[in-house]
Specification:
- By secondary structure, the chain is mostly helical.
- It has five helices and no strands.
Length: 97
Amino acid sequence: MRHTTIARNQISPLLDQLILQLDAEGSATQRAFFARIRRSLDVARYDLELASSIRDLTSSTAVGFRFSNDADALIVRILEKADALAEDLMVPPQIRH
């Protein structure tokens, strides 16, 4: 659950800003894409439930969207946070005896 809290605290506010930016630019398709990811972060309760959101975020550049400079800067920051979170999720848990 720790990772879901981190995702909400670090990525969700940036996604909110991106969604507002895309809405102001009239980019409805891109806005809907990132709004869906934002909703999936909201409902994630366990680390495994973050996987699809992180995958969608990291693959968003492959979708072929074109962004303004402002939106692109937000996306770069979101991807940095998502990559760091994905790396943290890949670390196997330490078992203490």
